[in-house]
Design goal:
Layout lengths: L2 H36 L2 H22 L2 H11 L3 H28 L1 H7 L7 H13 L3 H10 L3 H25 L4 H22 L11 H11 L2 H11 L3 H9 L2 H34 L6 H34 L8 H20 L1 H6 L3 H25 L1 H26 L6 H21 L1
Helix pairs in contact: 1-8, 1-13, 1-14, 2-4, 2-11, 2-13, 3-4, 3-7, 3-10, 4-6, 5-6, 6-9, 7-8, 8-9, 11-17, 12-13, 12-17, 13-14, 13-15, 13-18, 14-15, 14-19, 15-18, 17-18
């Protein structure tokens, strides 16, 4: 199979994976003007702080097991071996989710008082904790469909959960006017339904007899370097609301940053769809003679398309905010552009790190993350007091760029791929230069 055939296949899978994201994104964009009438920027700040907390708890609960599961699925091709991988991940994450939810629920008053700045929000934190447990294994079913190359099943599941969440948000937030708690009523209900679907679909593979402690230890040992890496990447991205809160004490600024981040995440839907297809596909062709050339072409086209889309989103950001929000949110437009480029940069890491999966060595990723987080945190302290939310976005992008450069250099030593870095870097510099000239002049 030549590159064109491989390209058609991966683009076809990416389109299917991205279809649900595109539809859900359209619905989400449709809701933005409605939500901005309900929530002030400071309310968005509170939602962002809880969202950041969910990101870090999810890192602990998943524990990098999605990465281990993908590798074990291909290394253990028997039904029993794959059932063991499923059961190990399911029971491990469900147990961790239960423990974390107990801790969060027990500390709900403290979290509401000292993190959210309002002790009356402790019931919201309890709802948040319940959802952490219910959603602890939700990623498993998605990964099952991905490794089995069943994108339509994955899309169907994601669409069901996304649409149900949106409809419940409309009911609780817009119709019943419950406010912030309505968001967490919605996610608790959908997470419960998702858990039920996961158990039903994987019922033949989830059982105590398939649980293998020895194999679980191997899976944990393989995924362990990804946990501190995930925490570091949390600091480099999702922790931004906490640093803005700490350095500026302005939840409205957090809310504006979150609006910009949400808008930039529209581009992330495309990269998400691509990576849903890419990782499993890249592993499945790794034994082919021209695999390295295929990886190089895929990466180059990813950069070209991604950077162009980021530029387009950045140039249109102010118009988009005028169209879908009100005047209180327009100042978030620069954040959109910076974080759009950051989406492409962080996605590049996932492409080049295919070498780490093939070599079964994630330690370079951990070392890269440790280095880049220092750059990000230094950027937070230096740039947030000077530039506010825009400074936070620039710090995140700088940290991810440093991580991408380091991981690429190390990955090339583990598994050399003939990337054309001259073309890739030249195009990237040109596009980002055009954007910053535009922001400066207009």
């Amino acid at each position: 199979m030549d590159f064109k055939q491989h390209g058609k296949k991966i683009l076809g899978d990416s389109f299917i994976y991205g279809l649900s994201g595109i539809i859900t994104s359209f619905i989400g964009v449709f809701l933005i003007p409605l939500y901005t009438q309900v929530f002030a920027p400071a309310d968005y700040g509170i939602i962002a702080l809880l969202g950041s907390l969910q990101s870090i708890t999810t890192i602990f609960i998943i524990f990098g097991m999605d990465n281990s599961f993908s590798v074990w699925y291909w290394d253990k091709p028997t039904e029993e071996g794959r059932s063991t991988a499923v059961s190990n991940w399911f029971f491990f994450s469900l147990s961790l989710g239960f423990l974390v939810s107990l801790l969060l629920g027990g500390g709900s008053y403290f979290i509401a008082s000292f993190i959210l700045g309002n002790s009356n929000l402790y019931p919201v934190v309890i709802l948040f904790a319940i959802n952490i447990f219910l959603a602890s294994t939700q990623k498993l079913l998605n990964m099952w469909f991905r490794v089995r190359r069943q994108p339509l099943h994955a899309v169907g599941f994601n669409l069901l959960i996304s649409l149900l969440t949106v409809l419940l948000n409309i009911w609780f937030v817009l119709i019943r006017k419950v406010g912030i708690p309505g968001i967490y009523y919605s996610v608790c209900i959908t997470s419960f339904i998702a858990l039920g679907i996961t158990i039903i679909v994987l019922r033949k593979h989830i059982a105590a007899r398939f649980f293998n402690y020895a194999e679980l230890r191997k899976m944990i040992r393989f995924s362990l370097p990804l946990v501190p890496t995930g925490l570091i990447f949390w600091v480099m991205g999702a922790a931004s609301p906490y640093f803005i809160n700490f350095l500026m004490h302005d939840k409205a600024e957090i809310g504006l940053y979150q609006i910009g981040s949400n808008a930039a995440s529209v581009l992330g839907l495309g990269t998400f769809a691509f990576f849903q297809a890419f990782t499993s596909y890249a592993l499945s062709i790794s034994k082919e003679e021209n695999a390295k050339n295929i990886y190089a072409k895929i990466f180059e086209y990813y950069v070209y398309i991604g950077m162009f889309c980021a530029l387009l989103l950045g140039l249109l950001a102010k118009f988009i905010l005028h169209l879908f929000t009100n005047e209180k949110y327009i100042s978030a437009y620069v954040v959109i552009g910076i974080l759009a480029f950051n989406v492409v940069i962080s996605g590049a890491i996932q492409v080049v790190s295919i070498a780490n999966l093939l070599a079964k060595d994630n330690k370079p990723i951990a070392r890269a993350a440790a280095f880049s987080v220092m750059i990000t945190v230094a950027g937070y302290f230096l740039l947030i007091p000077l530039l506010g939310k825009e400074g936070a976005a620039m710090a995140v992008a700088a940290g991810n760029l440093a991580s991408t450069i380091y991981i690429t250099a190390r990955a090339q030593k583990l598994y050399f791929v003939p990337y054309n870095f001259v073309r890739i870097v030249s195009f990237s510099v040109l596009v980002t230069g055009i954007y910053f000239v535009y922001v400066t002049l207009f």
